[in-house]
Amino acid sequence: MAKEIVLDIVKLEAAASKLRAIAHPMRIAIIDLLNEKKKLSVTEIYESLKIEQAAASHHLNILKSKGVLTSKREGKEIHYSVKSAAITEILQCIERCNN
């Protein structure tokens, strides 16, 4: 007898939302940078990627609001990091598919 698959629509929507959030070249670059450095400020991110501060903040806010990144205030700076290693694994999987 085949096992019945029960789909949890809420979980599927949350997963799709995260995938949409990371589905942008600059956001992937931010995640890659944070995987390498573990924790960076907005300034460190936009200087490393050679983009405007406003653009970096925009992408960081999207990634944070969708639960991809976490942030922590340290003095006057906010430092960002990847919330879950699973995000890194997803990007590595996509990279393997492109080879």
Mean pLDDT: 90
How does the major sheet shape up? 3 strands, antiparallel
Strand content: 5-15%
Corresponding CATH superfamily: Winged helix-like DNA-binding domain superfamily/Winged helix DNA-binding domain
SSE topology string: HHEHHEEH
In what order do the strands lie side by side in the largest sheet?
A: 1-3-2
- The name of the CATH architecture is Orthogonal Bundle
Termini gap? 38 Å
Q: What best-fitting shape do the alpha-carbon axes yield? A: elongated
Number of strands: 3
> How many domains comprise the coordinates?
1
The proportion of residues forming helix, as a percent range, comes to: 55-70%
- Give unreliable regions as ranges: none
CATH top level assignment: Mainly Alpha
Count of alpha and pi helical runs: 5
| CA-based gyration radius | 16 Å
CATH topology: Arc Repressor Mutant, subunit A
